[in-house]
Amino acid sequence: MIRIYGIRNCDTMKKAFAWLDSHAIAYHFHDYKRDGIDEATLTDWVARVTRTPLVNTRGTTWRKLPDDARQITSDADAIALMAAHTSLIKRPVLDTGDGRLLVGFSADTYATELTEPR
Prior knowledge:
Layout: E1 2-6, H1 11-22, E2 27-31, H2 32-35, H3 39-49, H4 60-64, H5 75-84, E3 93-95, E4 101-103, H6 107-115
Parallel strand pairs: 1-2
Antiparallel strand pairs: 1-3, 3-4
Helix pairs in contact: 3-5
């Protein structure tokens, strides 16, 4: 089953939920604010897609971090920072259950990755 990770009240998450619902695609939602996120999951994601697309450097949380905290020089730095500040994880992260990980929302990407035969 597809698992979608994020924060319920995020506008981008709402778009992803609406797209999935309109295409009758079943999913399980994992809310960072309610359920947290473990470092093992973050480590897996970084191994699958690298840290760059996962760390949201455009949001308020990033801008509020001290300069030294924004110096991500390793995967371990990125993982620790995302674990401590879940709002830094780009939303949504969608695990297709078959090895693919989609970061962010794009209707075109979702259509290609989730509705076209593989």
